[in-house]
Amino acid sequence: MSIAIRDVREHELDSVLALNNAAGPAILPLESARLRQLYDHAEYFRVAERDGALAGFLIGFGSHAQHDSRNFAWFAERYPDFFYIDRVAVASRRRGGGVGRALYADVQSYAELRYPQLACEVFLEHGADHALLFHGSFGFREIGQHVMTQDGLRAAMLMKTLCSYPWVRDTYGNVLPDVAWLQRPRKQILAVRPTGTDA
Length: 199
Fold this sequence. Notes:
About 30% of the residues lie in helices and about 25% in strands. The model is unreliable at about 185-199 (pLDDT under 50). It has a single domain (about 5-170), classed as 3-Layer(aba) Sandwich (Aminopeptidase). A 7-stranded mixed sheet has the order 1-2-3-4-5-7-6, sandwiched between helices. The protein has helices spanning about 15-20, 30-40, 70-80, 100-110, 130-135, 165-170; strands at about 5, 45-50, 55-60, 85-90, 115-125, 140-150, 155-160. The chain is an alpha+beta fold. The radius of gyration is 16 Å and the shape is globular.
């Protein structure tokens, strides 16, 4: 009954799409072309596997990415350096079983070595208490709200300071040690950070 977190595989995109679109109003629906675009450009795109079956996924972008999300743009207008959780979904039969926590632990482990803050949003229209409580238990705090004009959806914009980042930056600068557990996900190759940043 263990949970394995790993990079998504291209042949799993149809399953990811089905999982996304079955998640309900807490996440925006996707079309296959949009998911392919996320797959091609995301810095972080990992899945959770439990008992050999896809149980959830999480997609994320660094603040220097060319990402066209309106919520991402909201953060980018206000903060120079962060890692953005674009979307996360857990299969309904797996909710409450630790899959979401495993995905968030993994993305934090990735982000805290490279970015000072972790950002995401929670839509408020559809009984968001469980999502807000989940994020609050991970140390996120609301820094504002944003209304997506095309959809009319209001989102609580959440951010978490990553305490390990200053030490990692001061100790290693922009070059992390070449050890297996620090290898960037496959998608990171497409999102090399610009030189001249202090992160």
